[in-house]
Amino acid sequence: MIDFDNNYDYWTWIELALCLRAETALINKNSVKREKSINLIVDALNSGEGLHKKVKYNIHLRFMSGEGVEWGNDESDDDSFYLFERNLIYLMKLYKLKAFGGSSDYPLEKIDHNITNTRLYLKPLIDIEGIYFFSPFH
Fold this sequence. Notes:
Helices cover 67% and strands 0% of the residues. It is built from five helices and no strands.
């Protein structure tokens, strides 16, 4: 596993991959793998000294309350390339919220509902264009 070394250029994507790993572990009823995935993220949150840790923790709390999560679909923008990327990132953020059990602002029912809707939105785009049409897959 790749350890966190305060480089968010790559850690953001590793964190989201760990959230996907936690989701697949949940589906496969592998609680050990799920817990390990979440603990790796928590370890990154707990790294650093005093103020640095506090800032990361506050950012995490704001994220858990939904700050920076809602993207929605702008129907006036017909660029499927852009919409796919934006919704894929939104989906990954939903999986992160779910990995941490949701919050009062984002209960698990709302997260699951939004995951389902976002997946339903993305599927036709993939079926029409194919996954390799979209960044980062092309």
